[in-house]
Every structure is written in C-alpha cells, then in structure tokens.
Amino acid sequence: MLSDKKTYIKENNKSYVRPVIPVLISIILGITAGSLFYGGKRLAYLAIIFCFVSILISILKKKKAFIPPVILFFSLGYISILHYTTPEMPQNHISRFVDQGKYRIVGTIDRKTIKNKRLRLVISVENLKKNDSPFPATGKIRLTVGGKFPPLNKGDRISFYSKIRSIRNFKNPGGFDYKRFMAFQEIWGTSYSKGEQIAVLAKIKKKKFSIPIEKIRCKISDHIETFCPMEQRGLLKALIVGKKNEIPPFIREGFNKAGVSHILAISGLHIGIVATGAFLFFSWLLSFSTHVLLNAWVKKGAALLSLIPVITYGLISGMSPSSQRAVIMISVFLIAFLFEREHDPINTLFVAALFILIFDPTSLFSISFQLSFTAVFSIIYGISIINKRQNSEKRSAKTEYPGKLSKKILSFFMVSILAIAGTTPLIMFYFNQFSTMGIVANLFVIPIIGFLVVPLGLASIFLYSISTSAAALCIFLAGNILKPAMAIVLFFAKIPFACVKTITPSLLEISCYYILGWVIFRLFTRINNKEKIDKITSYILILLVFILLADIFYWVDKRFWNDNLRITAIDMGQGTASIVEFPRGHTALIDGGGFSDNTIFDMGAVVVAPILWRKKIRTVETLILSHPNSDHLNGLLYIAQNFNVKRIWTNGEPVETLGYKNLVAIIKSKEILNPMYQTMNKTEHIDNAEIKILYPPADFMSNNEKWRNTNNNSMVIKIIFGTVSFLFPGDIEKAAEKELVAMVGADLKSTVLFSPHHGSRTSSTIVFMEKVNPEIVIISSGFHGRFKFPHESVLNRYNLLGCRFYNTAKDGSVTIRTNGKSLTIDSCGVKD
Known about the structure:
Layout: H1 2-11, H2 20-36, H3 41-60, H4 67-85, E1 102-115, E2 118-130, E3 133-136, E4 140-146, E5 157-163, H5 178-184, E6 187-194, E7 199-202, H6 210-227, H7 233-241, H8 249-258, H9 268-286, H10 290-294, H11 298-316, H12 321-339, H13 345-359, H14 367-392, H15 401-431, E8 433-435, H16 438-463, H17 468-493, E9 499-501, H18 507-528, H19 535-560, E10 565-569, E11 577-581, E12 587-592, H20 603-614, E13 619-624, H21 630-642, E14 644-649, H22 658-669, E15 683-686, E16 689-695, E17 716-721, E18 724-728, H23 734-744, E19 752-754, H24 766-772, E20 776-779, H25 792-800, E21 804-807, H26 808-811, E22 814-818, E23 823-827, E24 830-831
Parallel strand pairs: 4-6, 12-13, 13-14, 18-19, 19-20, 20-21
Antiparallel strand pairs: 1-2, 1-5, 2-3, 2-4, 5-7, 8-9, 10-11, 10-22, 11-12, 15-16, 16-17, 17-18, 22-23, 23-24
C-alpha cells in the first residue's frame, strides 16, 4: 500500500503530500528571521508581490509551483513579527516619555492579574499630564499596585501619579529577553503606584464580547470558591477555567517535581471531553428527526453543533496556547465529518499551529506553545510508528479481552513516555529540571484527574445555567476526588530523586536529540519490517555520534582542562554577584545579588542559576558571602538550595532578616561546610591561583566603633593568578577603607578592582584607590536606580587615576579571562 502511494505521488508529480507542512515551516522561519533581523521589510514586501505574481502565472498556465509559495509565506511570517519587534510609534506614544520624571497618567484597564499578592494592571494610556499641561498619549504600560487598592476591573478608567520607567533586560549572555517578552504584549513601560493614590474616573459601561465570557469565568470561580473544599479550590479553578494564579506555590512545585504539571494546562484532554460529550448529545438529539435521518446528517449535524460548546469552553478557559491548539485541532476533526474526509492527525496539528501563528506570530516564542505542540507531535508520530508495527504483526482473528486490556494500558503508558521524551529537551532548556517519576506519577494521576475530576468540573459548567444545586454537587465531588490526587502528587514530589536539576542544553544538543529520535524510529521501522538500513540513515547516525562526541570534548575541555582563570560580573541591577571559574573546574560564587523580598523576584533563580547552568556548572565548590545585606545575600539562597555546594564562607555576622535565617537553615539541612570566620584559613591555593581574605579583622564583632555596620564589616577577597590580581571589597566605605589600608598596605595592589559599594560616593577614597592602583574597575549597579550609583564624583576619581571602568548597568555582564600574564575583557555586546 505504501509503495502504491509512492507510485501515485511520483506519477502525479506532487511536490509534497501535506502542503501545510512547508507553509508552516516557511512561516516559522520567517517569524524567526524577523525577530533577529529588522532591516528587510521593503525586500519582504517586494518578495510578496513577486511571489504572488509568480503563483498567479503558474495557476493560469496550470503549472505546479513550490518555491514561490515557500518564499511568499516566509516573507509574510517575517513582516508579521515586525509589528512587535520594530513597531512604528506615533509621536505621542508613551515609549517617548519613559525615564522623564512623574506624570499624571489617565488610562483604561486592559488586563488585571494578581501575582504573589501584588496587583498588576495593563493600562491603555489616554493622556499624560505634567506641569498642569495635559496632552494625549497612546500605548500600554504595566502598573504594579502596592498596598490597599479600590475595586478595579477590566475596562475601568483610572488616574494615578507615577514615573514611566523603560523596560530593560539584564544584559547577560543567553539571558531571558524580558524586553521582547513585554513588546510581544505591546507593553512599552512600567509604573508603580500605591492603591490609595489611584482614582477611579469611570467604571466600565460598554459591553464587549470579552466581558460576558470573563463574567462567566468569575461566576464559575465563585461557585468553586463556595462549594469546593478550601485546599483544592485553586487547583480546581486551574483545571476548569484556566485560572492558575490561585494555585498554592507548594502545590505548583509538587506538580512540577512529580512531572505532572502538564495536567494544570487546559488542553486536548479537557476540550476532547467537551467535544465527545457534545457530539454524543447532539447525535442523540438529532436522531429523533426523520428529516435528518433520511439525509444522513446525524453525525454531520452533531459535528457542526459540537463546535459551539467546544469554542465556548475554549473562550471560558482563557484560550491559552494549549487550549487554542486543542480547539483548532478538534474543530478541524469535527469539520472533517462534513466533508467525509479521513482525519490526518499530523496535518491537523500543523493546521492548528498555522492558524495560531497567523493570528498571533508571537506564540512561536511562547514556552507553552512549544511544549504543547512538541508533546502532541511526539505522541502522534510515535504512536503511528508503533501502530504500523502492530498492524504488520500476524494476529489471530479473535483477540481475547485481557489482550485488548493490556494493549490499552500499554498505549496509555506509551503516550506518557512519548510526551515526556518529546518535551524533555525543552523542559531542560527552559526550566533546567528532569522528573524521574513523571511516567509513574502520570499513570496514577491522569486517570483520577482526567476521567473523574475534569468531567465533573466540566459538567458543573454546563449544569450551572440549568441547576445550581446539580452544579454545586459536581464541584463538591470534584474537589473531594481531587484530594487523593494531590496527595499522590505530593508523595511522588517528596521522593529525594523525584526531580533532578540539570544543566542547560545548547540548541545544537537539542537539535541532535530530536534528529537522533527520528533516526531511532526510522531504524525501529526498518528492523521491524526486516528491511535493510539505508545509507542516508547510517550517515546521519555516524554524523550525530561525531557531533555529540565533539560537543562533549568541547565542554570537558572548557570546564575541566582549561588553564585560564575566568571571572564574570553579572548584570543584576542593584546588587553584586561574580562567578569565578578557576583553572581545572573549581567554581566559586562571590555574593549572589538579590531583592529584599525573594517572593517578588528571586535573583538567584532567575538570573544567577541560569548563567551557571548555561556554563554546564552544577557544582559550586565555594559560596562567598561578603556581608548579609539582601542585595548580596538573597540570590545565594537558591544556589545553596539547588546546586551541589561544598562550602560557604561568611564573616559570621548575624542579622535579623528572613534571608539570613533561610541561609542558616539551608546550611544546616544540607550539611554544607561553614567554617567560623575567626578560625578559618585566610589564605588558600586553588589550582595555581591564590585566594586571600584581607578583611575584616578576626575580632571585628567585639569592636564597638560607631562606624561599624554590615557594609563596613564586608569580607574583602583578593584573588591572585600569576601577575594578575582581582580585589572584591564588598560594600566597605570610607572608615573601613582606612582601616584596610592600615592593615594590608601595599598588598592591596590589584589589576582589577570591583568597585566598593557599587560606586557610592562614601567609598573609593583617594587613599584606598592609590593603594589598590587598579588598571580596570568593574562597577555593579542598577540602571537609573534610586541610589544614583555610581556617583559622578567617584567616576571622576577613576578617570583621574587613569582607570578604565565598566558599569554593568550600561555594559551588561563583564567577563575577564586571564592566563596569569595578560587579560581580555568581554562585556555584553562590547569586546576589547
């Protein structure tokens, strides 16, 4: 049959069997190109015109065309993303008024979310007012509201007084592109206001299509709030109406560790249940009509009518990428009934992806979009290969029930394996973790949630308008059934090896993984069919092995056979963190940056850890905390908890902060070596490099000088490698610098100085700078920070001394490499 199909294709000179595939690939490549290169807009328009004319000529001449459609859709994809990456802003756009002081801002609430108990609003700005002169403005900003706030809803018109800050990335190689992420949402600035300072000018009056849908979601959420047990409320809301913001953090983390977090996304399971239930109901209803029966329209009519509840539920669930994909796929499947066409799952999947990218090209860069389509494609492709094998086997005419049951269980098991195998590289790339218990946990959790909790929850939605009592009963039952499912998830999550933190795979490694998967399936098919392995497959396999061996050799050489010392000053705003990679693989982290509240933004998890993982670092032999202020300490908490840390050096000064208490608890629970400062060795040799602790004096905590504080008690670290040296003075200020000069004197001389206290005017005194006499100064400071670091007087001092300086706020992360004789410096986007 397969050979007949090939012959048919050859005889009819078809360019491809599934035309949507090259179209989709062309659009994806075009969108990707448009996100990277911005200067080809005119060329793209010319290509569209040329290709359109070429296609028309081919149609008139009744000739087939392949290249013009490919170029056409590539160009369309390229242009579609430029609206987000390089939009043409009007003169009164809010992006032209960022970082220019405070304005009275008037606008309409476009979106409302609550995260970590903080209210965030997306505001469509209408006008700005400064110096009693209002003027019209356009564009969207994100407003974070602190404290108590009035009742606010989407569509409300509000006024508040605030700065509009520009959106900025942490400029670290390979870091998350936050600016692009916000641009894809058409948000071009951020503001902050206290709730009591927000004035509501007008409540929403206009009735839009989205408002009733949102009201339905809210009513269902309120119903769950009333009738569902408290512990299960947030989780049930996520499963039924797609509201994930109320899931308790420990539950979300448990689902992630157990490898069942995909259940929290409304996807094909939910939409499929709605479609199946609707199809059966409408088939039963239409079967009573003689006219419909005579015209053989029962299934066609049921399929057509089923589109209504499918699309309605998709809207109620919030239309996330996974639910968009499911709605489109199932809609295409139902429409296939009308035309009596055979359903092709892969083609349907690609049609769904194509529709989503046409209407929202930014979805290509969405993690949920990538995971959703990769998982479904892996399942469809893998199951099709397995089914071919089963169909080729000789089976008896009659299959016993136990055999059928075992095959059903095996198929269910294989679906989980294929989904996990397909998404593992992406999960490692984005989340740096791998769940060892995912396959087993899915076998227990999916039947409970998928076949009991979700159907009951969905039934409550459709019963809500008929009988609130019946809907309440369904919610009550769903909530109580959900309780043992949560217990199972948390049981698997608590197993010590349930979730393993991983290094970040490169794009080359991810590509090799997927190509290798294709090769394995191809070999499986040929061996099963007792066919000879073709040369192309053999060559690809040999090439893959060569590439992977070369990749392993590259990273082993870079990590463990390298003779250079490398130091990276991370761009992290108002804070300090430096990664020190000693020759032969020993790694140290000096400070970790951080905000005062890690629940708002965890610098260690979001900035520091990803850089270490991209460098293939899982073990940090030495953590060094210069002093326990939050902008140096809080980023270390995640590293200490999630990396293999051998020891931690601190000055031993305790403070009454949550961050410090958490650090002490982590050290104790993980049994990390933490020597007492008074008795620890102040000099140590690590692979031909020397590390010295120069300050504070061993008895500093018994001294009662008025100037002593956490800043002035900072540990001062000096690293010497050959003739090149680096000085890390923490946040010491004038008095501590004076004492340090008296204690150490000429030994302060260093090639590179990491500016004390972020370039504050209370530090970098003339006496101190003359003793250090650095060639290069690295300043770690925030962009337009409230402390105004670095101070202009300090920069003038550096210039007078002939120092070359880098500021992470402007230059991004700074990496210094040295062989002990000379050094090279790379900053993010700037190379010396």
